[in-house]
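User: ok so my PI wants both of these folded by tonight, can you help

Assistant: No problem, let's get them done. Here's the first:
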Amino acid sequence: MTDLLNRADTLAAFADLEGWYLLQGAVHATYDAPDVPTAVELVRAAFEIADELDHHPDVDLRWKKVRVRCSTHSAGGVTAKDVELAHRIAEAAQRLGAGVLTDPPQHHDIGIDTPDASRIAPFWAAVLGYSYQGDPDSLADPFEGRLSVWFQVTDGASTGRNRPHVDVSVVPEQAQQRIDAAIAGGGRLVTDEHAPKWWVLADADGNEACICTEEGRGH
């Protein structure tokens, strides 16, 4: 098995690539091609490289924009294979005249508080058309394009709190900006006890959301 890179090693390996970001155990970049045919050519080039390396990225084509996500599923994160693949794709993009966008990626999922995940998980799986994601405490979209759902086990004795909440994962550089914007929008900081892993915010009605980063998670 290819060795998993920790956060520091991953950031160092991508220090020379503008517009590539580490988020949720993968590296991401978005390229803006001059036109649609060039965007299609970049997708073709990416998969030719992937076939050569026997390591394949997730690629999303939206008009002239090509979004690339690289990770090694068998290792559970980023490895040297992803470093080489990303650099080769970046070279192809430069050759084709596709510029990289510097807007960082983000990831959303929904957490539902419950004293017994097994009691409600089948309901949510059926309603959403989702499947179990490796364990019975989380659900995943089979097409990998929508929100993931996970269940946070509580003691069942708490009252007065909302049960669903939204988790928004951002790159660390964006966390404070996102928190400040949420507070300016009428929200409040509930706790920063777990920062920089996550901050808990609430809107004026008490509905909670977490701003999450990968810092301080021990990988």
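One down. Here's the second:
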Amino acid sequence: MRLPDFEAWAVFAAVADSGSFTAAADALSLSKAKVSKAVSRLEAELGTVLFHRTSRRLSLSAAGRSLVDHARRIRLDGEAAVEAARDEASLLTGTVRIAVPMSFGLRAVAPLVARFMAMHPGIIIDMHLSDARVDLVNEGFDLALRIAVLPDSSLRAIRLRSVQMYMIASPDYCARHGTPRHPGELGEHRAVHYANAAQPGLWSMTGPDGSKLQVRVPRR
């Protein structure tokens, strides 16, 4: 069994409601010729005349009057289906897995996640709070926030902002071990390192003139 020509049925309804092929063509953003062919195609399929045509007037035939309500329902159902599909496509749904550093995630990201989920109730956020490095692909993460210089990879990365780093020492430490006068002297001191850094203990610095220096600072 052949499927109904839904386009022709919808065009038939538009012509009946607008009262002319020209008005229906404008309403459907189609050419008048295409509208006329669609109606003729439907008449051939049904084996009956749907309109009485004269040079001045277009009117429904008896068969057209009995079928026009069916045509209107087909057109309205089609338009409703398209609208529902568009609404579904615009509705964000699913689970998003993100990896975020612990302290930064709790302080800065968690409030934003709560606001995002309120705006998009169809989204579930699975937030992994850890300072450990993760394998985004093998561990199934959709994205990660990192405060670091990232190695080259095929993953797409976007810098959100720069972070100012500080080297600090307590007055007691400086009193007992001396205050370094130049970054190169840091190698003679002891420091508390961040274990999850790419190279713990290797500090990279850039001077006011753009010169770069790397110093390996022993761990306490």
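Helices lie at 6-18, 21-28, 32-46, 62-90, 102-119, 171-177. Residues 48 and 63 are 7 Å apart (CA to CA). Good luck tonight!
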